[in-house]
Amino acid sequence: MQYSWLLFQALVAVFCAPLLSGFIRKVKNALRMRRGAPLGQPYRNIVKYLAKEEIVSETTSWIFRAAPFVVLGSTIAALMFVPVFSFSFSAAGMGDVLTVFFLFALGRFFLALAGLDAGSAFGGMGSSREMFISSFVEPVAIVTVAVVAAHGWSAESGEMSRHIGTSFSRMVAAAALFMVVLAETSRIPVDNQETHLELTMIHEAMLLEYSGRSLAMLEAAASTKQLIWFSLLGGVLWPWPFGGAMTLTDGIAAMALFGLKMIVGALVVGLTEIGLAKMRLFRVVDFLGLAFLFSVLALVILSLGY
Amino acid sequence: MFFLNQNLQFCFDPLALFFLGVIALVSFPSFLFSAGYLRVHFSRRRSLLAAGLTVFFVLSMAAVVVSANLIFFLFAWEFMSLISYFLVVFEHEHEASVKAGMIYLVMTHIGTAFLLAAFLLMYARAGTWDFEGIRIAVPAFSPTLKNVLFILFFAGFGMKAGIVPLHIWLPYAHPQAPASVSSIMSGAMIKIAIYGILRFIVGMLGLPPAWWGNAILVLAGISCLVGVIYALMEHDIKKLLAYHSVENIGIILLGVGAGMVFWHWGWRVLACAAFAAGLYHTVNHAVFKGLLFLCSGSIHAATGIKDIEKLGGLIKRMPQTAAAFLVGAMAISALPPLSGFVSEWLIFQVFFAALRDATSGGKLFFAGMMACLALTSGLAAACFVKAFGVAFLAMPRSQAAGEAREVTLSMRSAMAFLAALTIALGLGAGLIWKMLCVIAASFLDQPAPVPNDLLGGSWALIRFPGTGASLSTPMILLALCGGAAAIALVVRLRPRRPVVVKGKTWDCGYYQLDHRTEYTATAFSKPFRIAFSFFLMPYRKTEKIRDSFYHVKEFIYETATTPVFKRYLYDPLVAGLLKLAHHAKGFQMGSIHWYLAYIFVTILTLIVVFGRP
């Protein structure tokens, strides 16, 4: 029973993820006084890519072909460990939130290798920058999660979000995690999804050689990963107490609440992106350093008992 | 000759057996590998010599581990050091080998001197050379003596393990030996130092004061970061791997140090878990580092190149070596579901537990350690993206790399064995974890039953005590495969049958891309060089060679980082020593009258000081 809920959740999450990307784009365009693309544009893109022919560089190896499967596969596997709808149906007894981070690292590792595989300087540059930023993201993410887990529950993300009530240290930890989310979902001020200028792109530079169905998979993976990060942030900041045995009403309420959380998250991220300029690559270290300070601050507040 | 009168005792307790197992796991494939590898590089006679030396090297390591007597231990230890020295200088026609051997010899003997001092102190108080007798006598030692012994042991074994700042010999010595020997040195020999720390500091000195564990943790954290940052800057594949050994020894000691701190706090179950996590990383590192060194040997045998900047595209010409290297690289980068992931996950759980239950100061301290480990694992992943990406992917950067051929069967099967073992150590985590908990419980307190909390879970599931977290690598693998299979199914449901076309890499429409336009390892690591410039102190030299004012014919660009420990610690130390020797030379007059005077003064002093009734 639990596992069928898990699969259902994964299915819904993967399917809804592009909608979240579309909605953030819509928010940004609305703030810029533009009409923008329709909400369903990410879906249209994916369908279009699936139908198109795929061009693979002859310098590449099997790594390049395998990377989209590994990236999307690891993202879907990560979904099993995250309580997307704030149920306690994360795969209890299989892993915890650290597993999620390391599964992301697996996808990133292969994507960075694929970036180098074509032999183009763009891809290599993207890989280098991606690994650079992610290695500074990791300490912040892990310490933040540890602070939340240190409330007395385990780092199993289902357990973490089951606890009701928000404490001050949790709020500060959420601030740190928000900065991590910006960095991990390729958002301004760390990266910019909208640009293809070689000086500024990071995630897009690694995808530059991809086309057709591989590109479709990587886009789907990126939006699913974004959904996971948003739901982690939502679980930390605004936990919702649904116990183990759930009824249908509980389920519908939880999904409605999840939708609400995503809308709020998208509005905040959209506003942040519009309000900030992209940072130089080396300023990102300072940005993540600030995030790290927040996570340590959360720990200090926690040990003071708030 | 009292010291020859020892009863030559062996001990085969679980700790010794574990390390014997580690030595065997690394040595067996290395022998298999050397059958093919040595023949490529050396004549028949020298190959035999190398193989013979390696046999004795392995035997001496085994002797260290099973000895139950200080004298025997010391002899085996010295034997191990000397034979490994001969293997480091095996290619003595290269100046670099001789220099590396010299550094190794000096450093390892400084380490042995510390150990000797510790052993003599122990004997002086306990009156016996036997481990068992000393263990019984130790509780009567004064705290000061215990502290002194801790420092001596930690310095002595730390030298062998390559803890920063005593790591200086490691990146010189390990790469100089033949690859099959580097694999044993990095996989097994530095683990013997971990054995020493566990046997003497944890197993013999008893309940530690708080500062021991804290000191180990701090130095381990520094070793992790320094090791991995230097590895990122290094483009010689074997040196890169050697620096990663420094990093991984740091990770192992993070487990051991946390165990000592927990033991001091009275958290017996968690202490046991922390030591078991350290042991888990010990065997994992032995296997995947052995594998990676063998792969570097394959590359060297096939191309004659160690510098990754001159490699490239090897995945097409050496697919099996590439696959083996990829497995090792994924394991060392702690990617699920391989072995390195399990042990790093366990060490993170150890820190999580500390963060939950410790006092405020302890919480902050362990959060710092956690951040160190997280940063290290991120940087290690970056480093192996660099190593694999530059050496194996894209286009070859030299003719030798372009003409490489896959290596012989014996070399490939050795790598395949270790790669399979890396995967097995990841997937069989539940089973191995239980075994390691039994071992950890055995040396923590004798005789101690294994805490029941540690034995929950099944062969496929780890239940970590304290944090209540659990991990099942087979399930993760299942989720990964299921996810990938589902995608493969979905992308087949396309509106129209798509075509895959071979094309050229996008070159902005300018000209044919070739190996000169590829991203290099130096470029890849540049962001890290800049971010850590406060420590690396990089400098560069640029020079334009002009035809005329308007046209630059050539552009020379050189960049290097400052070897901080050598320049600011070892060079002044050596300079001071030489200066002292220079002054001491004054006593060496060469005149027999002076020497007679020295003898006279010495005797007189001795009579005055000791000659009183």
Give the assembly state of these chains.
heterodimer
Q: Stretches of chain B where pLDDT falls below 50 for ≥5 residues?
A: none
Give the count of helical stretches of chain B. Answer: 24
The overall number of domains of chain A is 1
Strand order of the largest sheet of chain B: 1-2
Radius of gyration of chain B: 27 Å
Strand content of chain A is: under 5%
C-alpha end-to-end distance of chain B: 29 Å
Order of helices and strands of chain A: HHEHHHHHHHHH
Class derived from helix and strand content of chain A: mainly alpha
DSSP helix fraction of chain A:
55-70%
Shape of chain A: globular
Percent range for β-strand residues of chain B: under 5%
H/E element sequence of chain B: HHHHHHHHHHHHHHHHHHEEHEHHHEEHH
Shape of chain B: globular
Mean pLDDT of chain A: 86
Characterize the structure shown.
The complex is a heterodimer of chains A (306) and B (613). Chain A has 306 residues and is an all-alpha fold. Chain A has one domain (2-304). Helices cover 70% and strands 1% of the residues of chain A. Chain A is built from 11 helices and 1 strand, in the order ααβααααααααα. The termini of chain A are far apart. With 613 residues, chain B is mainly α. Chain B folds into 4 domains: 1-195; 207-489, no CATH class; 520-560, no CATH class; 566-610, no CATH class. Chain B is 70% helix and 4% strand. Chain B is built from 24 helices and 5 strands. Chain B has helices at 14-41, 44-66, 70-88, 95-126, 131-137, 143-161, 170-176, 179-202, 210-233, 237-265, 268-303, 314-317, 319-332, 339-357, 360-392, 399-402, 409-427, 429-444, 473-492, 521-524, 526-531, 533-536, 564-584, 592-610, and strands at residues 462-463, 470-471, 500-503, 539-546, 552-560. A two-stranded antiparallel sheet of chain B has the order 1-2. Chain B has a two-stranded antiparallel ribbon with strand order 4-5. In chain B, strand 4 and strand 5 (552-560) form a beta hairpin. The longest helix of chain B is centred in the middle third of the chain and has 36 residues, at 268-303. Chain B is globular. The interface between A and B is large, with 91 and 86 residues. Strand 1 (54-57) of chain A pairs parallel with strand 3 of chain B.
